[in-house]
Specification:
With about 300 residues, this protein is of the alpha/beta class. The protein has helices at about 15-55, 75-95, 175-185, 200-210, 240-255, 265-280, and strands at about 60-65, 95-100, 110-115, 120, 130, 140-145, 150-155, 165, 195, 215-220, 230-235, 255-265, 285-290. Helix 4 (about 200-210) links the parallel strand 9 (about 195) and strand 10. The chain is globular and about 60 Å long. It holds the Pfam family Peripla_BP_6.
Length: about 300
């Protein structure tokens, strides 16, 4: 007769193993509790940061360092950018803002004709010619509509209630001066944000300093592209967006022979390279390239 009470030796559990299992269970529970606490801390971090930001909202102005060339060869551009920055900060502090629209701020009011379908461009790699222009221009009317009043009250003066303070030293069209001013703005003035530069040369002169101190930096000019940096944000159009439509138009409007005259630094050289690469695709030919120093202002000989 089979004994149902017999215990299989393989299933026998000793007192030591029971103790070990209890200890493992405690360890597992302890590990889970630690994980839960860590997860709770991570999940609550946004709330903590939000609280810090709110606490800082009344702790003084938001400082923006704004380096531009107010003297020297580049001043013709730098002064205009400085005036624009002053106007923008004044409007922000007064609680003014541009009303959003379909194209940029407030939209763009324009009458025009349009095709029934969107254009198709290119059949493959490096082919940028129109394949299909969307058909004949069968429609006409307001292409974009602009509101009557695009400059409105934002309801919030400054940034999160903090006044914006613009600190704008003169870069003097001298990259050594730019580097000194960049260090001063970061280390002494303790700016929250840096907005600076017309030329790519000025940008590259301070970018190593920006990276060293992990400073938030905006470069707002059109440029040659290729900057991948966790601290630097380039907001302007790049070569593909500028060279391709311009060269296409110039070849069609004035003919295929192209003489490239560019500044002898990264923006000029890379723009010339894009022109050289794209011109043959639209029937253009580069007959010569010339690179002039940034300090050069008389182009009579070249012309």
């Amino acid at each position: 007769m089979e004994n149902n009470n017999e215990v299989d030796p393989k299933e026998t559990v000793t007192s030591d193993e029971v103790t070990k299992e209890k200890n493992n269970s405690k360890i597992k529970r302890r590990t889970v509790m630690k994980g839960a606490v860590a997860a709770s801390a991570v999940l609550s971090m946004p709330m903590i940061l939000t609280g810090i930001k709110r606490a800082e909202a009344a702790s003084g102005p938001v400082k923006i360092g704004h380096i531009e060339d107010l003297s020297g060869n580049i001043a013709v551009y730098g002064v205009q950018k400085w005036h624009a920055a002053q106007l923008a900060v004044k409007e922000i502090n007064e609680g003014k803002a541009l009303k959003g629209g379909p194209v940029g701020s407030g939209g763009l009011g324009s009458l025009g004709k349009f095709a029934g379908n969107a254009p198709i461009m290119g059949n493959g790699d490096k082919d940028l010619k129109f394949v299909n222009k969307g058909g004949t221009h069968i429609g006409s009317g307001m292409v974009y509509v602009e509101d009557d009043d695009t400059f409105v009250d934002s309801g919030d003066s400054g940034i999160l209630g903090r006044e914006v303070k613009l600190i704008g030293p003169d870069g003097q069209s001298n990259w050594n001066v730019w580097q000194q001013l960049c260090k001063k703005l970061i280390q002494e003035d303790k700016v929250d944000c840096l907005v600076a530069g017309f030329t790519s040369a000025s940008r590259e002169s301070i970018r190593p300093i920006v990276d060293r101190y992990k400073q938030l930096y905006f470069y707002t000019n059109q440029y040659e592209g290729g900057v991948a940096d966790s601290n630097t944000f380039c907001t302007g159009a790049i070569c593909e967006q500028q060279v391709i439509p311009v060269v296409d138009y110039m070849v069609k409007r004035f003919g295929p022979r192209i003489y490239t005259l560019a500044a002898d630094y990264n923006f000029g050289q890379l723009t010339a390279a894009w022109t050289k690469a794209f011109a043959p695709l639209v029937g253009g030919t580069i007959i010569e390239e010339e690179f002039a120093p940034l300090s050069m202002s008389d182009f009579t000989t070249s012309i």
